[in-house]
């Protein structure tokens, strides 16, 4: 796909319009054009897909810092607006790596890239040889009477699981316990040494043929060893579901049969597999730095101004990788130049109108979301303001303004009384509020709001919503199938700028409303995530 190269310096005129809309507030950019200018810069080919640790990402971070400055935000990094984050990187050397199964004394070689891949989010051992145990959904949640690991000997074993969660579980618990980090906590406690994850083909966002192209990219973890999330994990393997029966041969079960049970909401059996896995893993390790960017709009209330509402969006994307249709730049226009542009535009509008809420707002563009929400995890663990002073996070990631904003999809709607705030804002903007229509996609934990949730901070994320069985649903699903994490998420795609503009305004109004609340946001009594709260509500 041929892409237009944009000039590196885009002058963005900040024009305070006095024109009042029927919503009763002042709009500086009612058509979304200024929002789009930010997207055009951040998603231009010149920034090379903003991969964590690259000059393109650094350039994007400098741009965000400039925009924060223009919007009158105070620097809130460790050096100016920048918070430097250190990473360890790992890249697979496939020519010196191998993976195989042994069954009945026979060796079955697995082709890397086709049958299976190593996930280097964990720092793997150089070699491993271990028995395999299939654990079904692989969840151990006694409070929900789910004990998939019961009666299985996992000491020294590699756990094989279907990367799905029972649909009977509340969405929030599906999201939390289905995460790789929480899974490893359970498997490690049971004595396991590694994992093989198999997706349910029905839940796959990115087809294997496309996702496997990413395997040669460097994976990362935070350099700070106290923030390692996979202690003791010697190997993590992702199996191509199309070849999953290589694992199940001789077990008396087929993958199709096991997945059908998952689809029907029936219990999935657990059993030791009559095979062992053996792997040689050659890894090139380096270290690098990347940037979070933070700026503060100081609040007006003498007491509450020392409390902060976070507006977050991730700045990084996938960089330059496997070409698709001759295009190797993964521009990440919607994922997530669009979200960063949204918070920049919120800051610019508040600056233009002179509106300042009681609490302070801290705008944070984070790095390394695509590497596992690492930049936000670092910020939540080492915030540049006291952690106990952060009262909420409102996150925007890939909000997908592909059609007019009529429904507001809210992830985390029922978890805290931020849900009441978002409902009030939506009502005043004549928008319907909806929950995640597909909780099985685990969207609540698949972006940066979750780093704040795990630090005990009430959080939510929003997107342009749609109803089931509508043309909008078709557009959204087509986008995910064709453009999500592909080079075609670029500037040459149809985007509804007015929808984006309306979304930006929802974020602005919600941030102001939360920052003006007399009390801090509180977790719902019924919320599972309440357990992470470190500060008494
Ligand atoms: Zn992404």
Which descriptors would you attach to this protein?
537 residues; alpha/beta; ten-stranded mixed beta sheet; eight-stranded mixed beta sheet; 13 helices; 22 strands; disordered N terminus; binds zinc ion
In short:
With 537 residues, the protein is of the alpha/beta class.
How is this structure best described in words?
- This protein is α/β, with parallel strands linked by helices and 537 residues long.
- The protein is 26% helix and 24% strand.
- It contains 13 helices and 22 strands.
- Strands 1, 2, 11, 14, 15, 18, 19, 20, 21 and 22 form a ten-stranded mixed beta sheet that branches. Strands 4-3-13-6-9-10-12-5 form an eight-stranded mixed beta sheet.
- β16 and β17 form a beta hairpin.
- It is globular, with a radius of gyration of 23 Å.
- The termini are far apart.
- The N terminus is likely disordered.
- The site of zinc ion (ZN) has 3 residues, from loops.
Topology:
Elements: H1 33-42, H2 55-70, E1 74-75, E2 82-92, E3 98-103, E4 106-110, E5 116-118, E6 127-134, E7 140-141, E8 146-147, E9 158-163, H3 171-177, H4 180-189, E10 194-199, H5 208-211, E11 219-222, E12 235-239, H6 245-248, H7 255-263, E13 271-280, E14 283-297, E15 308-314, E16 319-324, E17 327-330, H8 333-353, E18 360-366, H9 374-381, E19 390-395, E20 407-411, H10 418-428, E21 432-434, H11 449-454, E22 459-464, H12 471-482, H13 497-516
Parallel strand pairs: 6-9, 9-10, 10-12, 15-18, 15-19, 19-22, 20-21
Antiparallel strand pairs: 1-14, 2-11, 2-14, 3-4, 3-13, 5-12, 6-13, 7-8, 14-18, 16-17, 20-22
Helix pairs in contact: 1-8, 2-8, 8-13, 10-13
The structure holds zinc ion (ZN).
